[in-house]
Design goal:
Blueprint: E1 2-5, H1 15-18, H2 21-32, H3 35-53, H4 56-82, H5 90-104, H6 107-113, H7 119-123, H8 128-150, H9 155-175, H10 177-180, H11 196-214, H12 216-226, H13 228-233, H14 238-264, H15 274-287, H16 292-314, E2 316-318, E3 321-323, H17 329-344, E4 355-358
Antiparallel strand pairs: 1-4, 2-3
Helix pairs in contact: 3-4, 3-11, 4-11, 4-14, 4-15, 4-16, 5-8, 5-9, 5-14, 8-14, 11-14, 12-14, 15-16, 15-17
Amino acid sequence: MSVASSSVDTQAVSPASVARHKPARFALARKTVMTPFLLSLLLIAIAVITFMTGSRPFSQTVIDVLVRVTLVVGLYVFIGNSGILSFGHIGFTCLGAYAAAWMTINPVMKGGSLPGLPQFLLDMRLPYWQSAVLAAVFAGVVALIFGRVLMRLSGIAASIATFAMLAMINTVYANWDSVTGGTNSVVGIPIIRTIWPYLIGAVAAIFLAWAHAISRSGLALRASRDEPTAAAASGVDIPRERLVAFVVSGAIMGLGGAMSAHSVGVVTPDAFYLGLTFITLSMLVVGGMGSLSGAVIGVVLLSGLIQFLRWLEEGISLAGTTLALPRGVQEIALGIIMIVILALRPSGLMGNREITLASRNRDK
Protein backbone atom coordinates (compact mmCIF):
# COMPACT_ATOMS: atom_id res chain seq x y z
CA MET A 1 0.00 0.00 0.00
CA SER A 2 1.22 3.50 -0.77
CA VAL A 3 0.05 7.04 -0.37
CA ALA A 4 -1.72 8.24 -3.50
CA SER A 5 -4.56 10.39 -4.69
CA SER A 6 -7.91 8.73 -4.39
CA SER A 7 -9.81 7.98 -7.57
CA VAL A 8 -12.96 9.18 -5.83
CA ASP A 9 -14.14 12.58 -7.02
CA THR A 10 -15.82 13.88 -3.89
CA GLN A 11 -17.59 16.60 -5.87
CA ALA A 12 -18.99 14.51 -8.70
CA VAL A 13 -22.02 13.25 -6.82
CA SER A 14 -25.12 12.98 -8.97
CA PRO A 15 -28.65 13.61 -7.75
CA ALA A 16 -29.42 10.01 -8.60
CA SER A 17 -26.93 8.92 -5.96
CA VAL A 18 -28.47 11.32 -3.45
CA ALA A 19 -31.74 9.42 -3.87
CA ARG A 20 -29.82 6.43 -2.53
CA HIS A 21 -28.15 8.25 0.35
CA LYS A 22 -26.87 5.33 2.39
CA PRO A 23 -25.01 3.31 -0.32
CA ALA A 24 -23.43 6.42 -1.84
CA ARG A 25 -22.49 7.81 1.54
CA PHE A 26 -20.94 4.58 2.76
CA ALA A 27 -18.97 4.16 -0.47
CA LEU A 28 -17.52 7.66 -0.15
CA ALA A 29 -16.72 7.15 3.54
CA ARG A 30 -14.98 3.85 2.85
CA LYS A 31 -12.78 5.26 0.09
CA THR A 32 -11.78 8.44 1.95
CA VAL A 33 -11.64 7.11 5.49
CA MET A 34 -7.86 7.53 5.68
CA THR A 35 -7.86 11.12 4.40
CA PRO A 36 -8.33 12.90 7.77
CA PHE A 37 -5.83 10.56 9.42
CA LEU A 38 -3.15 11.21 6.80
CA LEU A 39 -3.70 14.96 6.89
CA SER A 40 -3.55 14.88 10.68
CA LEU A 41 -0.31 12.87 10.54
CA LEU A 42 1.16 15.56 8.29
CA LEU A 43 0.34 18.24 10.85
CA ILE A 44 1.55 16.07 13.73
CA ALA A 45 4.87 15.53 11.96
CA ILE A 46 5.28 19.28 11.48
CA ALA A 47 4.41 19.90 15.14
CA VAL A 48 6.85 17.24 16.42
CA ILE A 49 9.69 18.60 14.29
CA THR A 50 8.91 22.09 15.57
CA PHE A 51 8.90 20.90 19.18
CA MET A 52 12.24 19.15 18.71
CA THR A 53 13.91 22.29 17.32
CA GLY A 54 13.04 24.22 20.47
CA SER A 55 12.93 27.47 18.52
CA ARG A 56 10.27 29.90 19.80
CA PRO A 57 10.08 31.94 16.53
CA PHE A 58 9.70 28.74 14.50
CA SER A 59 7.11 27.47 16.95
CA GLN A 60 5.10 30.68 16.55
CA THR A 61 5.29 30.31 12.77
CA VAL A 62 3.90 26.78 12.93
CA ILE A 63 1.18 27.93 15.34
CA ASP A 64 0.16 30.46 12.69
CA VAL A 65 0.07 27.64 10.13
CA LEU A 66 -2.21 25.55 12.34
CA VAL A 67 -4.54 28.50 12.84
CA ARG A 68 -4.71 29.02 9.08
CA VAL A 69 -5.37 25.33 8.52
CA THR A 70 -8.39 25.63 10.79
CA LEU A 71 -9.66 28.71 8.95
CA VAL A 72 -9.16 27.34 5.43
CA VAL A 73 -10.77 24.02 6.37
CA GLY A 74 -13.71 26.05 7.65
CA LEU A 75 -13.92 27.81 4.29
CA TYR A 76 -13.78 24.46 2.48
CA VAL A 77 -16.79 23.12 4.39
CA PHE A 78 -19.02 25.77 2.83
CA ILE A 79 -17.30 26.91 -0.37
CA GLY A 80 -16.05 23.49 -1.44
CA ASN A 81 -19.35 21.72 -0.91
CA SER A 82 -21.79 24.44 -2.01
CA GLY A 83 -19.83 26.03 -4.84
CA ILE A 84 -20.71 29.50 -3.49
CA LEU A 85 -17.70 31.75 -3.01
CA SER A 86 -18.00 33.41 0.39
CA PHE A 87 -16.15 36.61 1.22
CA GLY A 88 -17.68 36.89 4.67
CA HIS A 89 -16.48 33.92 6.69
CA ILE A 90 -13.63 35.84 8.30
CA GLY A 91 -16.40 37.74 10.08
CA PHE A 92 -17.07 34.57 12.09
CA THR A 93 -13.35 34.45 12.92
CA CYS A 94 -13.72 37.95 14.35
CA LEU A 95 -16.69 36.82 16.44
CA GLY A 96 -14.78 33.84 17.80
CA ALA A 97 -11.69 35.89 18.63
CA TYR A 98 -13.61 38.52 20.58
CA ALA A 99 -15.73 35.91 22.33
CA ALA A 100 -12.55 34.18 23.52
CA ALA A 101 -11.22 37.53 24.72
CA TRP A 102 -14.41 38.32 26.66
CA MET A 103 -14.29 34.96 28.43
CA THR A 104 -10.59 34.78 29.33
CA ILE A 105 -9.36 38.31 30.12
CA ASN A 106 -8.91 39.17 33.79
CA PRO A 107 -12.24 40.59 35.10
CA VAL A 108 -10.45 43.63 36.53
CA MET A 109 -9.06 44.54 33.11
CA LYS A 110 -12.42 43.95 31.43
CA GLY A 111 -14.20 46.26 33.85
CA GLY A 112 -11.92 49.11 32.86
CA SER A 113 -11.55 48.60 29.13
CA LEU A 114 -14.86 46.93 28.19
CA PRO A 115 -17.46 48.31 30.62
CA GLY A 116 -20.37 47.67 28.28
CA LEU A 117 -20.13 43.90 28.54
CA PRO A 118 -22.96 42.09 30.36
CA GLN A 119 -22.20 41.47 34.01
CA PHE A 120 -21.88 37.70 33.58
CA LEU A 121 -19.13 38.25 30.99
CA LEU A 122 -17.40 40.83 33.16
CA ASP A 123 -17.24 38.30 36.00
CA MET A 124 -16.30 35.34 33.79
CA ARG A 125 -12.80 33.94 33.40
CA LEU A 126 -12.64 30.54 31.73
CA PRO A 127 -9.71 28.33 30.68
CA TYR A 128 -8.67 28.86 27.06
CA TRP A 129 -10.03 25.51 25.87
CA GLN A 130 -13.49 26.17 27.27
CA SER A 131 -13.55 29.63 25.75
CA ALA A 132 -12.55 28.18 22.36
CA VAL A 133 -15.46 25.73 22.41
CA LEU A 134 -17.94 28.41 23.44
CA ALA A 135 -16.51 30.81 20.84
CA ALA A 136 -17.15 28.19 18.15
CA VAL A 137 -20.72 27.75 19.39
CA PHE A 138 -21.26 31.53 19.42
CA ALA A 139 -19.99 31.90 15.85
CA GLY A 140 -22.14 28.96 14.75
CA VAL A 141 -25.27 30.54 16.24
CA VAL A 142 -24.56 33.84 14.48
CA ALA A 143 -23.97 31.90 11.25
CA LEU A 144 -27.38 30.29 11.72
CA ILE A 145 -29.02 33.71 12.07
CA PHE A 146 -27.34 35.16 8.98
CA GLY A 147 -27.66 31.92 7.04
CA ARG A 148 -31.45 31.80 7.38
CA VAL A 149 -31.52 34.74 4.98
CA LEU A 150 -28.34 34.43 2.94
CA MET A 151 -28.66 30.76 2.01
CA ARG A 152 -31.73 31.46 -0.11
CA LEU A 153 -29.45 33.35 -2.51
CA SER A 154 -27.26 31.78 -5.17
CA GLY A 155 -24.28 32.66 -7.32
CA ILE A 156 -22.84 36.16 -7.32
CA ALA A 157 -25.76 37.48 -5.26
CA ALA A 158 -24.84 35.15 -2.40
CA SER A 159 -21.15 36.10 -2.65
CA ILE A 160 -21.91 39.81 -2.49
CA ALA A 161 -24.28 39.24 0.43
CA THR A 162 -21.55 37.43 2.39
CA PHE A 163 -19.21 40.35 1.79
CA ALA A 164 -21.90 42.69 3.10
CA MET A 165 -22.11 40.49 6.20
CA LEU A 166 -18.35 40.82 6.70
CA ALA A 167 -18.58 44.60 6.36
CA MET A 168 -21.44 44.71 8.88
CA ILE A 169 -19.55 42.69 11.48
CA ASN A 170 -16.39 44.74 11.00
CA THR A 171 -18.29 48.03 11.27
CA VAL A 172 -20.11 46.98 14.44
CA TYR A 173 -16.98 45.71 16.15
CA ALA A 174 -14.93 48.75 15.08
CA ASN A 175 -17.46 51.19 16.58
CA TRP A 176 -18.90 49.44 19.64
CA ASP A 177 -16.31 50.94 21.97
CA SER A 178 -17.75 49.83 25.31
CA VAL A 179 -17.98 46.17 24.27
CA THR A 180 -15.20 45.62 21.71
CA GLY A 181 -12.87 48.50 22.40
CA GLY A 182 -13.61 49.93 18.95
CA THR A 183 -10.54 50.28 16.76
CA ASN A 184 -8.25 49.98 19.79
CA SER A 185 -6.56 46.67 20.46
CA VAL A 186 -8.06 44.46 23.15
CA VAL A 187 -5.14 43.19 25.22
CA GLY A 188 -4.75 40.88 28.19
CA ILE A 189 -5.82 37.68 26.42
CA PRO A 190 -3.85 34.72 27.84
CA ILE A 191 -1.20 33.71 25.32
CA ILE A 192 -0.78 29.96 24.81
CA ARG A 193 2.80 29.31 23.71
CA THR A 194 2.70 25.53 23.44
CA ILE A 195 1.90 24.13 20.02
CA TRP A 196 -0.30 21.20 21.05
CA PRO A 197 -3.64 22.99 21.66
CA TYR A 198 -3.44 24.48 18.17
CA LEU A 199 -2.67 21.07 16.71
CA ILE A 200 -5.73 19.63 18.46
CA GLY A 201 -7.90 22.44 17.09
CA ALA A 202 -6.67 21.95 13.52
CA VAL A 203 -7.11 18.17 13.67
CA ALA A 204 -10.61 18.56 15.13
CA ALA A 205 -11.51 20.90 12.26
CA ILE A 206 -10.24 18.36 9.70
CA PHE A 207 -12.28 15.50 11.15
CA LEU A 208 -15.39 17.67 11.44
CA ALA A 209 -15.04 18.77 7.81
CA TRP A 210 -14.59 15.17 6.68
CA ALA A 211 -17.58 14.00 8.70
CA HIS A 212 -19.75 16.66 7.06
CA ALA A 213 -18.45 15.79 3.59
CA ILE A 214 -19.43 12.12 3.89
CA SER A 215 -22.72 12.84 5.64
CA ARG A 216 -26.11 12.79 3.98
CA SER A 217 -26.17 16.58 4.11
CA GLY A 218 -22.75 16.97 2.52
CA LEU A 219 -23.57 14.52 -0.25
CA ALA A 220 -26.85 16.29 -0.99
CA LEU A 221 -25.16 19.70 -0.97
CA ARG A 222 -22.58 18.70 -3.56
CA ALA A 223 -25.30 17.24 -5.72
CA SER A 224 -27.28 20.48 -5.48
CA ARG A 225 -24.21 22.41 -6.51
CA ASP A 226 -23.48 20.28 -9.57
CA GLU A 227 -27.07 19.86 -10.76
CA PRO A 228 -29.39 22.11 -8.73
CA THR A 229 -32.51 21.48 -10.82
CA ALA A 230 -32.15 17.70 -10.78
CA ALA A 231 -31.22 17.71 -7.10
CA ALA A 232 -34.30 19.74 -6.19
CA ALA A 233 -36.41 17.34 -8.23
CA SER A 234 -34.87 14.47 -6.25
CA GLY A 235 -36.11 16.01 -3.01
CA VAL A 236 -33.02 17.95 -1.88
CA ASP A 237 -33.88 21.03 0.19
CA ILE A 238 -31.07 23.21 -1.18
CA PRO A 239 -31.37 26.19 1.22
CA ARG A 240 -31.43 23.84 4.21
CA GLU A 241 -28.33 21.91 3.10
CA ARG A 242 -26.49 25.16 2.44
CA LEU A 243 -27.50 26.39 5.87
CA VAL A 244 -26.11 23.26 7.55
CA ALA A 245 -22.73 23.77 5.84
CA PHE A 246 -22.82 27.49 6.62
CA VAL A 247 -23.33 26.85 10.33
CA VAL A 248 -20.67 24.12 10.52
CA SER A 249 -18.15 26.26 8.68
CA GLY A 250 -19.04 29.29 10.81
CA ALA A 251 -18.37 27.30 13.98
CA ILE A 252 -14.98 26.14 12.66
CA MET A 253 -14.09 29.72 11.73
CA GLY A 254 -15.07 30.80 15.25
CA LEU A 255 -12.76 28.15 16.67
CA GLY A 256 -9.98 29.48 14.45
CA GLY A 257 -10.67 32.97 15.72
CA ALA A 258 -10.28 31.84 19.34
CA MET A 259 -7.03 30.08 18.44
CA SER A 260 -5.79 33.24 16.74
CA ALA A 261 -6.62 35.38 19.78
CA HIS A 262 -4.72 33.08 22.14
CA SER A 263 -1.74 32.85 19.78
CA VAL A 264 -0.97 36.60 19.93
CA GLY A 265 -2.88 37.85 22.97
CA VAL A 266 -4.36 40.81 21.11
CA VAL A 267 -7.43 41.30 18.90
CA THR A 268 -8.53 44.20 16.75
CA PRO A 269 -11.28 44.33 14.08
CA ASP A 270 -8.91 45.13 11.22
CA ALA A 271 -7.00 41.89 11.86
CA PHE A 272 -10.12 40.00 10.73
CA TYR A 273 -11.02 41.83 7.57
CA LEU A 274 -9.85 42.00 3.96
CA GLY A 275 -6.24 40.97 4.47
CA LEU A 276 -7.04 37.69 6.19
CA THR A 277 -9.92 37.10 3.75
CA PHE A 278 -7.55 37.35 0.78
CA ILE A 279 -4.87 35.11 2.28
CA THR A 280 -7.22 32.32 3.34
CA LEU A 281 -9.12 32.32 0.04
CA SER A 282 -5.79 32.23 -1.81
CA MET A 283 -4.73 29.14 0.12
CA LEU A 284 -8.03 27.41 -0.59
CA VAL A 285 -7.90 28.23 -4.31
CA VAL A 286 -4.29 27.13 -4.71
CA GLY A 287 -4.80 23.84 -2.89
CA GLY A 288 -8.16 23.13 -4.49
CA MET A 289 -11.59 24.23 -3.33
CA GLY A 290 -13.06 20.82 -4.05
CA SER A 291 -11.06 18.73 -1.60
CA LEU A 292 -10.20 18.69 2.07
CA SER A 293 -6.67 17.61 1.19
CA GLY A 294 -6.31 20.65 -1.05
CA ALA A 295 -7.38 22.95 1.77
CA VAL A 296 -4.72 21.62 4.14
CA ILE A 297 -1.92 21.26 1.60
CA GLY A 298 -2.61 24.72 0.18
CA VAL A 299 -2.09 26.21 3.64
CA VAL A 300 1.16 24.32 4.25
CA LEU A 301 2.66 25.21 0.86
CA LEU A 302 1.67 28.87 0.80
CA SER A 303 2.57 29.38 4.46
CA GLY A 304 6.05 28.09 3.67
CA LEU A 305 6.28 30.48 0.73
CA ILE A 306 5.05 33.42 2.80
CA GLN A 307 7.60 32.72 5.52
CA PHE A 308 10.37 32.46 2.93
CA LEU A 309 9.40 35.80 1.41
CA ARG A 310 9.26 37.39 4.88
CA TRP A 311 12.80 36.16 5.44
CA LEU A 312 13.91 37.73 2.18
CA GLU A 313 12.11 40.98 3.02
CA GLU A 314 14.03 41.19 6.27
CA GLY A 315 17.23 40.88 4.28
CA ILE A 316 20.08 38.39 3.96
CA SER A 317 23.78 39.20 4.23
CA LEU A 318 26.06 38.24 1.37
CA ALA A 319 29.71 39.32 1.29
CA GLY A 320 29.04 42.18 3.66
CA THR A 321 26.02 43.39 1.68
CA THR A 322 22.44 43.07 2.83
CA LEU A 323 19.98 42.09 0.14
CA ALA A 324 16.28 42.55 0.83
CA LEU A 325 13.11 42.35 -1.21
CA PRO A 326 10.71 45.31 -1.20
CA ARG A 327 7.87 45.22 1.31
CA GLY A 328 4.62 43.82 -0.05
CA VAL A 329 6.20 41.11 -2.18
CA GLN A 330 4.17 38.50 -0.28
CA GLU A 331 0.85 39.87 -1.52
CA ILE A 332 2.17 40.24 -5.07
CA ALA A 333 3.47 36.67 -5.06
CA LEU A 334 0.14 35.33 -3.77
CA GLY A 335 -1.71 37.22 -6.49
CA ILE A 336 0.57 35.86 -9.21
CA ILE A 337 0.27 32.30 -7.89
CA MET A 338 -3.53 32.55 -7.83
CA ILE A 339 -3.60 33.81 -11.42
CA VAL A 340 -1.30 31.03 -12.61
CA ILE A 341 -3.24 28.32 -10.77
CA LEU A 342 -6.60 29.58 -12.05
CA ALA A 343 -5.22 29.75 -15.60
CA LEU A 344 -3.45 26.40 -15.72
CA ARG A 345 -5.32 24.32 -13.13
CA PRO A 346 -8.63 25.94 -12.16
CA SER A 347 -9.47 23.14 -9.75
CA GLY A 348 -6.26 23.73 -7.74
CA LEU A 349 -3.26 21.53 -7.06
CA MET A 350 -5.33 18.67 -5.66
CA GLY A 351 -8.34 19.20 -7.91
CA ASN A 352 -11.27 17.13 -6.67
CA ARG A 353 -9.13 14.38 -5.21
CA GLU A 354 -8.31 13.38 -1.67
CA ILE A 355 -5.10 11.86 -0.37
CA THR A 356 -5.70 8.34 0.84
CA LEU A 357 -4.05 4.93 0.98
CA ALA A 358 -4.28 3.36 -2.45
CA SER A 359 -4.68 -0.37 -2.75
CA ARG A 360 -4.90 -2.41 -5.91
CA ASN A 361 -7.38 -4.76 -4.33
CA ARG A 362 -9.60 -2.11 -2.76
CA ASP A 363 -12.37 -2.30 -5.31
CA LYS A 364 -12.15 -6.02 -5.97
